[in-house]
Amino acid sequence: MENFLKRNKVLVVVLIICVSLLAGYFSYSFLLKGSLFSQFSSAIPQLGSSQLFQDLRLSSQKNEGTFNPLPEESTNEYTISTETKGVVSPGNTSSTQFGLKIMKNGNMSMLADRGKFFETWQKIIASAQSISGTVANSSYLKQGDYYSGFITIIVPTNSFDGFNETISKLGKVISLNVSTQDVTGEYVDLSSKLKVLEEQRNLLLSWLKDAKTIDEMLKLRSEIQSIETDIETIKGRLNYIAFHTDFSEITINLSEKEESFKPAGFFEPLIEALKKLYEALIFSFFGLLIIVAFILPWGLAGFGIYKFISRRKSHK
Predict the structure, then answer these.
(1) 187-203 as b/e, with b when 16 or more CB fall inside 10 Å?
(2) Domain-ending residue, one of 214, 236, 256
(3) Alpha carbon distance 222, 248 (integer Å)
(4) pLDDT of residue 161
């Protein structure tokens, strides 16, 4: 063995260096996927990075004390009365005069002038409150230097078209979608069913007073409970139709206009190239540090082995 080492000193040194380089390469490759390189990367300064999203969502539900970064709105409770709008109560369906029952809802997308997002936002809310409307839900966020959001507003149906016309003057309307649904037939049909069920219930109640046996009373009570359940279901649907035909909902999606594109100046491409060159140099520097850190111990070990072998040869 010693004779082999004596005759092949150069081969041994080359072999040690190759093993050290391979070990350093695999260690470096492993660290590129691990957390240590991530820690180094996080320390590298980034130039020209985009601003993080600042999600400043807000929900303006009725009677909830949620934080609202906008100027404070009126906190008076908004009550919608539907007493004279065809809401069904026991005994009044026979005299109700039905008109058209049409549900109307809308969705609008519009752009506010740059820097006037909140001003336009407040004007929309004020326009709704001026016609006894209310904000059902609202939310906005900041992305970079621009704001965007939506407001869902409930307004009286007879003021729906005028409200759309008013707020369309506050910015540039991109789209407006209005959907309508005629539920007159359903309303009339449900009202007729309600009248029949109430008459059946009253009849069963009269029979219940004259029941002679417990079995008869239990059967009649079961029938009455089933009919009362159907009555409450129909009343709920009728009130839903009455409300959504007397009041309409519109959602306004509002965003700021983006600045128009400006052609790049003479020095802008050069500055951008220098930024990228700077970032590349920083990454290369940290990569070199990692390589040296993991090759150096192996190189020192190889050099120590070489010196040890050389010293033993000199002694012999």
Answers:
(1) beebbeebbebbeebee
(2) 256
(3) 40
(4) 93
Number of domains in the chain: 2
> What does the pLDDT read at residue 295?
82
Q: How far is residue 111's CA from residue 116's CA, in Å, rounded to a whole number?
A: 10
**What is the H or E stretch that residue 253 is in?**
strand 247-256
Structural domain ending residue among the three candidates 236, 256, 276: 256
Structural domain includes residue 74: no
Contact 96, 188 (CB under 8 A): no
Using alpha carbons, list the distances in angstroms from residue 112 to 106, 116, 122, 255, 312.
Answer: 19, 6, 12, 6, 85
CA 109 distance to own-chain centroid: 17
Residue 2 CB neighbour total at 10 angstroms: 10
Q: Are strands 102-112 and 247-256 parallel, antiparallel or unpaired?
A: parallel
CB 58 within 8 A of CB 69: yes
Q: Could you tell me the residue range of the domain that residue 234 belongs to?
A: 93-256
pLDDT digits (tens, 9 = 90+) for 161-218: 999 999 999 999 999 999 999 999 999 999 999 999 999 999 999 999 888 899 989 9
Residue 54 belongs to some domain of the structure: no
Give the length of the chain.
316
Rounded-to-integer distance, Cα 15 and Cα 298, Å: 12
**Rounded to whole angstroms, how far apart are CA atoms 235 and 238?**
5
Neighbouring-strand partners of residue 149: 140, 254
- Domain presence at residue 195: yes
Q: CB within 8 A of 143, min separation 6: which ones?
A: 53
User: Model's pTM, two decimal places?
Assistant: 0.49
